[in-house]
Amino acid sequence: PDKVLIASIMGENEQQWEELARLVQEAGADMIECNFSCPQMTSHAMGSDVGQSPELVEKYCRAVKRGSTLPMLAKMTPNIGDMCEVALAAKRGGADGIAAINTVKSITNIDLNQKIGMPIVNGKSSISGYSGKAVKPIALRFIQQMRTHPELRDFPISGIGGIETWEDAAEFLLLGAATLQVTTGIMQYGYRIVEDMASGLSHYLADQGFDSLQEMVGLANNNIVPAEDLDRSYIVYPRINLDKCVGCGRCYIS
User: What is the average per-residue pLDDT within 99-120?
Assistant: First the structure.
């Protein structure tokens, strides 16, 4: 096969992580993704609980490296304040890069008739992981945070979270993601969106004068500064396009 096969694994202890790494390498995987971030686990020793502990992430990364010689990505949880600390722990443990983000812990909605959260499983529900377009701003924030950290500046990042269009993909690249992963968008719209992304990005590169995707990685970070560094010395006035105005009144209400 001419495509890279990445095996995603998750264990409860060092022995399991090491054994799973060995097994997926024997099965023919090209790379390993350590899932330290799934919020829908039945054990506190797995998933996003692990991803909030730098000590566990470093320990389990070392275990995977003992079991396999394959390149390894550590998949980060967004259910945390500062992702850099955990990413640095993964790097110390031998990870070759970071994958970010996984789903956001949430209760998506409540069935008003049954008074149960969705989705309903045999009359009950649970806190679960939210994905899709709504998590993109959260993912972009964490990508930017890691890419601009002095010790992570050259550490590969695989961007995940709400990517559906070539514009979404370009945003992740401009903030520092070196590769991209898409799941929910493909589940919703099918594999055709991958072709649309490739085509759109190709046109964007040509329009911007880039010879490769690598040239645009991280370029937007130069223009993202702390809030206190923003220029507040001027006043901005609205300019209404009367040809497009429909009289909705939203600008007045705002």
Answer: 93
In 3D space, the residue among 152, 19, 169 whose CA is nearest the CA of residue 76 turns out to be: 152
Its sign, for the CA torsion 88, 223, 138, 162, is: negative
CA-based torsion, 141, 146, 132, 165: positive or negative: positive
Strands of the sheet containing 97-100, edge to edge, are 6-9, 31-35, 72-75, 97-100, 157-160, 179-181
pLDDT digits (tens, 9 = 90+) for 60-73: 999 999 999 999 99
Per the residue annotation, which of 34, 38, 61, 84 is the catalytic one? Answer: 38
Q: How far is CA 165 from the centre of its chain?
A: 15
84 is catalytic: no
Q: Is 97 exposed, middle or buried (0-12, 13-18, 19+ CB in 10 A)?
A: buried
pLDDT recorded at residue 1: 66
* Among candidate residues 34, 29, 30, the one with its CA nearest the CA of residue 17: 34
Cα first-last separation, the chain: 55
